[in-house]
Amino acid sequence: MFQDISRSIEACAAHYGADAEAVKTYLIEGQAKALALPNRGPLKFEANGDIHTDILSAYSEYGFYIFEGVLSGDELADIRADLQEMRENFPSYMGAETDKHGRPALGADNKAMTLQWARPLSDPLGGTQISNGRHQVKLFEPKAANDAPPAVPVYLSGSLQFSPACLRAYAHPGLLKLAETINGPDFVPFTEGLFIKDAGLGAAVSWHQDGDTHWDNPDFDENIHGFNFMGQIYGSTAVNGVWVVPGSHKMTRANIVKMVEDAGSERLPDAVPIICNPGDVVINNRQIVHGSFANTGFETRITANFGFHKRSSVLNVKGAGIHADAVTMDADYIDTRSRLIGLAIDARRQRFPDETPYNYAPFAKRKDEFKWSETAQAELKDYNLMDLSI
Prior knowledge:
The chain is of the alpha+beta class. It has a single domain, classed as Jelly Rolls, CATH 2.60.120.620. Helices cover 28% and strands 16% of the residues. It is built from ten helices and 14 strands. The longest helix has 21 residues, at 331-351. The chain is globular, with a radius of gyration of 20 Å. The relative contact order is 0.18.
C-alpha cells in the first residue's frame, strides 16, 4: 500500500492557477501509469545467485526499477537517526559557520562541496549553465508560504563521511551484486549524496540527463554513464518524487527544450513518477530523462543516492567537472576513490554480522586493508573531492 497523497495533489495543483486541473490530472494519471509498469518488486535472484533475468530485462527496457523493501526496519531506523543528528548540525542558515546550537556546523571546514541550498520551491539549476548546462529549461516556481525561510537545504554531497548508517547501506550485498551484474566485477564508485525535499519547501530539479562525457563515444551504449541507487527513507510520491521518461536512456542526448515545446508545457506526457514506500531502493540509469517538481505537498522526501560506473567508462577519462574537479582519472586515482567500497563492506559486516558480505573483486586479496572504525570514518573527510564524475 502507498500513502494517500490526495491532499498533496490538491495543494500542488492549487499553485498553478489556470492550469490547476491540468496539473491535478497529470499527477493522478502519472501515478496510475507508474504503478501499472512491470518494473517493481523484491530484489530477487536466480538459483545460482545471479540477479533475476526479469529484473535485468525490465531495467534495460525502462531505465529504472524499484526494489521493494530492500532496507530493513533496523537499517531505516539507523539512517533516520543519523539524519536527525546531521540536521541538528546543519548550518543555522545558508553560509553560517555554526548550527542552531552554536556548534561548528556540519561541513563548515570541508574543502569539498557539502550542503547546498536553494530558495524554497525554486528551480535553481533550470535554464542556467550550471552543471555544464544540462538543465535546459526552467520549471515553474510556485510561491512559497510567507513564513518560509529565505533558503533551505536541498542536497548534501559526500554524505557517507557524515553518516555511518548511509555508509553501511552503500555496501548492501544485493545492491552491490546488481552493480557487478550491470557494470562488471571491477565496477567503481560515482558519487554519493542526500536529496532533501522538505514538505512545502523542497526545490525543483529541472528535466535533465546525468551523463555528460560519453554521448559521442563510438562505444556508446545504454549503460556507459552508469546508474544511481536511490534509497527512499520516507517514501516517494507523484508530488515530491523524481519523474522519468521510460526508455529515454537508450537514445542520444535529448533536446529537452524541444520536448517541452512539443508538450506545450513542462509536463512531459510520457513521464511517470517514481512511487516508493520507505525502504524501497530505485536503480535509475543516469542517461534517462528525469527531474522533479517543487514539493508543494505535505510529505517530505529524503533520498540516499549512491552511484556506480563501469571501470572502462572512467579509466584514463577526463572528468566532467560537475561533482569534482575535471581531472584525468588514472588507475591510482580510481583505486583511491574505490577504497570507500572496501571500508563500507567492513562497516556493514560489523553492524550485520549474520549477513554474508559482498566480495568486491578488485580488493579480494586486500580485504585486511579495510577496517571500519570511528577513526576510519573521520578519515573520510573530503573523500568526495575525488568523485568519479562523467
